[in-house]
Amino acid sequence: MASFAEATAIQAIDSHNYLANFPENWCIGSVPHGGFVTSCFLSATVLHFSTTHAARNQPHTITLHLTFLRRTSVGSARFSIRDVKLGRRTSTVHVTLTQGDAEAEPSVVGYLTQSNLRTEEGISLQTEWKLHPPPRPLSSTTQGLREGKDSNWVLSTPIHPSFRKASRRTDIYLPRHGQLEPGMADEWLRLKDGGKFTQESLGFVADMFPQIVDIYPGTDPPVPTSPTSAKNGKDGEKRKGKPNWYPTVLLNLDVKKALPEGGAEWLFVRVRAKKIENGRMDLEAVVLDEGGDLVALSNHVCLILSSERNMARSGKREGGGKEGSKL
Q: Strands, E, within the chain: which ranges?
């Protein structure tokens, strides 16, 4: 089973085209997880700037904007990069993801901006910004969290883990006594394979959380469990009804900070929906490091669909195309 680092590995075809492989164990239903795909965009762009544009010394993506046009699928994926603006401090590229034959239409398109977070200089001001309401603190340490000894946080069981296979690849710790507000979720997150979160992982981190609709008050919520039962994933299958699918229409990422050179084992995420209506919702994700420093901001537009829409084969596109749209 591919680790996150292995699953997001990118190979260069030439100076502006790159190849990835989307494995089944990083899917939601039959569709590769949107955050996983986002991390592959980040990985391809970072490889582009470490090879084709190595002399620019711009190793970090600071902004990303993706539009998900069509559903992606398990298997080979090609990233084609067009240099839009190459600058001294920042450079911007247009990246297109396609799957299938050479005539296939794009599945996901995006703009990414590169810079160097470790050499940035300029005005810095303290804004006194803080999360509100304040998240529940750790009563111990992240080591105690991992060992199940924290009185405020507990390892959760994924809901419908056989459908949400990608969620089984992480350990997600939720507030032991419930979320602070409806429409909001706090979590501590780590990779189950023992890997560390890197800059390229932030796309996945910003899109891996308990779904707001699933844990909304009055629904059948996940039950916090012991580490043993959480790892086998069986409790999450007891959730009543069929799973929903929450396909991403748009995802933005604003990276504020470089993670340590060796990566970070733990990150904190708060995700909040401001309006959920007519099967569509917004999401804002705030990513903090262990010290509470802001790492990244992300905003999403998502749909709320039945799992049947995920598992169904795509039909023909409107206008006579070869493949169906994502939705």
A: 11-12, 17-22, 27-28, 31-32, 60-68, 75-86, 91-98, 108-115, 153-155, 170-175, 184-191, 244-245, 248-255, 267-272, 276-277, 280-288, 294-303, 305-306
Which of 177, 176, 206 has the alpha carbon at shortest distance from 189? 206
- Integer Cα distance of 45 and 105 in angstroms: 20
In this predicted model, what pLDDT tens digit does every residue of 142-154 receive, in sequence order? 999 999 999 999 9
Pull the structure tokens for residue 69.
């046009």
Distances 71 to 140, 233, 249, 301, 305 between C-alpha atoms, Å? 42, 26, 10, 15, 13
For the chain, the first-to-last Cα distance in angstroms comes to 28
Residue type, 107: S
For 130-157, b/e burial (b = at least 16 CB within 10 A) is: eeeeebbebeeebeebbeeebeebbbbb
Exposure of 65 in the CB half-sphere (CA atoms within 13 A): 5
The pTM assigned to this predicted structure is: 0.91
With helix as H, strand as E and coil as C, how does 256-298 read? CCCCCCCCECCEEEEEECCCEECCEEEEEEEEECCCCCEEEEE
**pLDDT tens-digit profile of 123-176?**
999 999 999 999 999 998 999 999 999 999 999 988 899 999 999 999 999 999
CB 192 within 8 A of CB 171: yes
What does the alpha-carbon distance between residue 4 and residue 201 come to, in Å, rounded to a whole number? 8
Residue 176's Cβ-count burial label (10 Å; 0-12, 13-18, 19+) is middle
Residue 79 neighbours by CB distance under 10 Å: 25
Tell me if 77 sits within 8 A of 21, measured CB to CB: yes
DSSP 3-state of 32 = strand
